[in-house]
Amino acid sequence: MLIVHTAEELQNRMKSKSASLGLVPTMGALHQGHLSLVSRAANENKKVVVSIYVNPTQFNHSKDLDNYPKDIDKDIDLLKPFEKQLILYVPSHSDLYPEGIKSKKFDFGSLTAHMEGASRPGHFNGVATIVEALLVNIRPTRAYFGEKDFQQLQVIRALNQKLDLGIDIVNCPLQRAENGLALSSRNALLTKEQKSEAAVIYQTLEYLNKSATDWSVGEMELYFKSKVEAIKDFKVDYFSIASPSDLIPVSHLDSRKNYRIFVAVYAGKTRLIDTIELVRK
Ligand code: PAF
After folding, report:
1. How many domains does the chain have?
2. Alpha carbon of 145 to ligand 1 centroid (Å)
3. For the chain, which terminal residue's Cβ has fewer other Cβ atoms within 10 angstroms, N or C?
């Protein structure tokens, strides 16, 4: 597999600058969710760049950064089926942060005011700083992001609009394990027991869509908390229902509008997020 460590090397390796290029930014510890992005990028572009970079500025605690799962050899193995089309970009800090590891400040208005933005201050400044560096340095035709991080996706769409580089942001559906748990690199930090218990998150979200169709937002939140927190060491960080366009949580539903449910749950020390479209008849 072709592995490069600097954006300059990457540019030199891109033989035909006019060929379509798909970028899949990741922090490694790849799973089937990432591979679904890579596969789509490979179908839609001549060349694909996968970046693996654990971005320090989007972590709120140094312990969380230190504990973040890393397994580059396994990542390379998982990417082997795409080898012919793929360049793996594994930058050093100085390639993406030539002036030192520091976030830029952005204003995304309501998009970053709630949920992950409220629970993880500064997180989206870190994400936007690194995604801007990747988009500007690599200039792909398309860049691929998963809907599991739905709030991140909307922030990146807003960032991309501001940058105005003509890059297409492609969103790909959240992928789940057999028991419904949303695939995430952080799942590697769960015990076997926690992994199976964490199925309660999606099961309860599904229940709210199928069987609680006339419940208020407050009732749904109470039910979600009661189911999840019945499990030892599980704690709900937030349960929010918000419109996908402005991401402002609501306390009452308007039948003319579309909504998504957004949740964050601690399973022991590991923080998991999930989101589904709210279905109401
Ligand atoms: O979703 C992720 O893995 C990261 O937030 C991203 C987009 C690669 C930026 O570091």
Report:
1. 2
2. 8
3. C
Q: Largest Cα–Cα distance in the chain?
A: 58
66 in Cβ contact with 28 (< 8 Å):
no
What confidence tier does 14 reach under pLDDT thresholds 50, 70, 90?
A: confident
* Boundary residue ending a domain (141, 172, 203): 172
Residue 25 Cα to ligand 1 midpoint, Å, equals 6
| Residue 34: strand, helix, or coil | helix
What's the CATH number where 254 sits? Answer: 3.30.1300.10
Ligand 1 site, CB within 6 A: 25-27, 55, 58, 127, 130-131, 149, 152
pLDDT tens for each residue of 33-71: 999 999 999 999 999 999 999 999 999 999 999 999 999
Is 123 noted as a catalytic residue in this protein?
no
In terms of residue numbers, what domain contains 22?
2-172
Q: Which of 31, 34, 114, 123 is an active site residue? A: 34
